[in-house]
Fold this protein.
Amino acid sequence: MRNVIIGTAGHVDHGKTSLIKALTGKDTDRLKEEKKRGITIDLGFTNMPNPKGINIGIIDVPGHERFIRNMLAGIGGIDLVLLVIAADEGIMPQTLEHFEILKMLGINKGIIAITKVDLVEAEWIEMVEEDIKETVRGTFMENAPIIRVSSYTGQNIDELKNIIFYMLEEVESRRTDPSLLRIPVDRVFIIDGFGTVITGTLMEGSISVGSEVQIFPGDRIARVRSLQVHGNMVDTAYAGQRTAVNLMNVKKTEIKRGDLLAAKGSLTPTMMLDVKIRMFDDAPRTLVNGMRLHLYCGSAEVLCKAILLNKEKLDRGEEGYAQLRLEEELAVKKDDRFILRFYSPVESIGGGIILDSNPIKHKRFKQDIIEALSVKEVGDGKSVLEQIIKEGNISDVRNIANRLGKTVGEISSDVERLVKEERTIKLTDDLIAHKEYFDFAKDATKEILEDYHRKNPISSGIQKGELSKRLADKLRIQDIKMSDLLIKLFNEIGLIDDKGKLVALSTFKVIYNKEQLALQESLEKLYNGYGYEIAELEEAISDYKDKNLAKQMVEALESEGKLHRLSYKYYMHKSHWDRAISLLYDFINANEKITLAEYRDLLGTSRKYAVMILEYLDEQKVTKLIGDSRILL
């Protein structure tokens, strides 16, 4: 079944609610004050029975200027707008404000209903209709059907229904993948015996009973107890349906209008948004850099500061790029639409589209930033994807999809094309980097190693952990595992030689001069003479004039397999180490275990050195201490 949402718009007391009642037989005014005053204050909802098998939800929004914020909470995400204009008054201030909002939200289908035609003469209606045509000329409603109706007499109500049914058949189906689930919360209430219930328009995705969802912008996870669509219990609700969700173990105080119910981990709350702003054609104020504003997106309203990135100010009808710096977190997606209102007095001045939902902080008038935003605004899918990958350094494909408001499957073909064109590099099945960043990382690694080899000409290589840390610092990588991954890949492509603990450039070779060969021979002889009773490194090289060179030579002897390293300051000649291990294995194989005293006697040395060797073997998971004895693992 197709699922669509109709929203009303128009000035207060122009008959929106009465028209919906005439179309559906249901009154959407639910509050006592609405009944008493005869005006809609908050959002009203109902469904529209039809013979076409379409699931039609209707959102009735308030028209009074004092309740524009309530109107904005419900008007986003509709498929077709019913712009209501009373014949006896014609176009009024809120008609124009609602119309500007509709244009800004990207709604592209609409019907214009001239109501209360039973109250005025035909000549007057002709004048109203001409005024309407002039107002909508050049907009998405220029060719919209205009129909004269009376909710009181029933005039043309059936014809209006038929027009609605016809136009809704042209509405594109929404995406229903569960990973795309988003429901902006517009109502929260308690039902005795069931607990907390939220309602909202299911913008995209689907939701099922028993599934886990996340309440954004926080990190609260909730489980769905039950679902209703237009008062009917369902197992699954789909995009385009007005949905009531009964949440388990969530208090009413833990969720509010403006929050978002979405798939777990599908969004990243943000305090900044990169956007394209367009001022209303009749905006009452000029937007200047740094101005404080009300931002409306989905059902959320937050305060923000507008930093204009390519202009000093925006007058009515003008547009430009900006970064909105929010005063509280918001969870949105790229291409979401929004409305801006002046801080005080609260007046609607414009709106726009989100180009990046998780940007970094920008400086103004930076050409590279402006060019990147232009790509995100008008570029094709592959170009936008490449730009996001370029900015992300090393990115998880799923996170990129979330940032673009898509599924992994929807971006997979563009990912593969970029890899095939060698514009991006697939590091793993899930991780990807832009070619420019990968080359930059290669150059950084080469630079680090060249510097190390220059300063340590006889060292076989830098410690792998040290290289990983230096690379992470140079590339500003937060997760050290990412620099470890790069080192692994650079080894695979032959840039470096990974020797286990040490790493060197693949082109590097140690070449000793005569003095260095003599030093090497001297140090090897020194350590061979220690036997098992080895000295600390500083003590061992204390008689050498160039102590830094002597340290490097000890490390070189270890990398060449002539010394064995027990710790950063203790080395043992390889022949003695092999003998110490052989004695240990032979004894334990014959006796199943060995004590410290027994090993000390085997080596013929003091307790200090026997403990040093055994504790090292414990750390390496070769032996295990049980009671007073050790066994082999």
In short: Residues 30-42, 63-67 have pLDDT under 50 and may be disordered. The chain has five domains: 2-168, 178-263, 272-370, 379-511, 515-633. The radius of gyration is 36 Å. The CA atoms of residues 52 and 165 lie 7 Å apart.
